[in-house]
Amino acid sequence: MNIELHVIQNFAPANLNRNDTGTPKDCDFGGFRRARISSQCFKRAMREYFGEKSLLASNRAVRTKRILEAIQDILVPEGKDKDEVQVVVKNALASQKIAIKDDGKSQYLIFVGRAAIENLAKVLKNDNVWDGLLGMGKAAEPTEETSKKGKKKKAAGAIPEDIKAEVNDAVDQLLSTGTTADIALFGRMLADIPGQNVDAACQVAHAISTNKVNMEFDFYTAVDDLNPAEETGAGMMGVIEFNSSCFYRYANIDLEQLKKNLNGDEALCRETLAAFVEATINAIPTGKQKSMAAQNPPSFVMAVLRDDNLWSLANAFEKPVRPTERDGLVDLSIKKLVEYWGSLCKVYGTPENATVFCSGTNTIAITPELGFEVKDTYKSLIKAVADQAVFAKST
After folding, report:
1. What is the C-alpha R_g of the chain?
2. Contacts of 289 (CB under 8 A, 6+ apart)
3. Contact assessment for residue 22 and residue 303, using Cβ atoms and an 8 Å cutoff
4. How do residues 132-146 score in pLDDT, each as one tens digit?
5. C-beta of residue 192 within 8 angstroms of C-beta of residue 266
6. pLDDT tens readout for residues 358-380
7. Coil, strand or helix: which one is 9?
8. Can you give the residue ranges of every domain in the chain?
9. pTM
10. Phi first, then psi: what are they for 76, rounded to 5°?
11. What's the 3-state SS for 175-235?
12. Residue 151 pLDDT > 50, yes or no?
């Protein structure tokens, strides 16, 4: 089963996701310039939301280059020497081709479970393991060896045989999905260790505005509070670009892939799904929020539970929405979204065994023939989706 989420969300003037020049991200769609918020930006906001709301508390991951530092923070307060910790951790990680550079960081960001970091620290402080890895001397660096095809590849340092299995198991757990919900959701790629790659259970689209957008500029000045009375002028000035846009957001989640990634733990799958839907609805990017406070929740959410195929409804807005004095941008966007869904169902047929829930501040466009089940609150929509989710096809 797949679950799709379609969201209409109107933001006041904001710069929630900017490019390298500080300009709000945008794109061309349907021949018109649109505001855009990247999928990475929303996924980061969702993972932050998990933490803020204590969702999936014992099943979350961290994306970091600072694994060594994280283990130091555990072991040094317990009495281990900092320099020795560095040797032990580097030797352990080198066995799985994870090199720690001279600055104490890994070569690239690694998405690993928080609980797995704690478990690795616990294994490493065991006297036998500690002495064995420390006895290897200077921290091992992955060396180059030649494969049968003549290509160079990384080779791990040699860990003493009596602790090899225990160390390898702990490092494998570090890289395993296990019961780490956000790795299961968002996936992971490790170029040097392809066997530890994880196919993401969810897809998140770039949010695009339903309306044509033009960038606007805020010229600001700041006064020096200690300026002498006879001095005039600003102590600082600058320009911030922003826009105000109504966004169409789309995401989906493959429940079979989620169950596979979470080792068949259906209870955790259901909890993860509910957290994903809640975060999709409520998580808001943080860019320039201190100066613009665009804390605008979605106006409409549509959740589709279906067995096959996937439909983004972005083409509902190929022609940008144009508000009138009578009909606002949000209401017209919801109407176009619902009408486009109806058009797809008419041409392709209503998805077999599909259930559609919706909720929002405006559901006037929802007519009985659409077969939508309207929920009074987002909480009831989240619960309905989690309750009716099926994580494996019936046989």
Report:
1. 26
2. 14, 16, 295
3. no
4. 998 886 654 555 555
5. no
6. 999 887 778 787 889 999 999 99
7. strand
8. 2-58+199-388, 62-179
9. 0.87
10. -65, -45
11. HCCCCCHHHHHHCECCCCCHHHCECCCEEECCEEECCCCCCEEEEEEECCCCCCCCCCCCC
12. no
